[in-house]
Input
Amino acid sequence: PVSICHVQENVLQRVLQLPVVSSTCETLQRRYSSTKEAHPLMASVCEVYERGVQGAGALAMWGMEPVVRRLEPQFAVANNLACRGLDHLEEKIPALQYPVDK
Output
């Protein structure tokens, strides 16, 4: 079978676009937001945590950039293999194409 991954697309983007995954993420985001709104103390703790995660993520990406550039060919091969695996999963598990509530 021919993989449906495009040059600019990666396997993570495809997984996040699956209805079962995207609807789960949306539900979790709504619950997280409503919890923050309902509990002001929890909101302040969450905001501190979110800023820390963003800072750590930015620092990690800055530190990894040279390594990522050198390993780009290997990442492209791994992405292609992962896309083919995802093609196979989508064929074998049709439920991946439906939101969680269905």
Notes: Residues 49-94 form one domain. Confidence is low (pLDDT under 50) at residues 1-7. DSSP finds four helices and no strands in the chain. The helical segments are 11-17, 19-38, 40-70, 72-92.
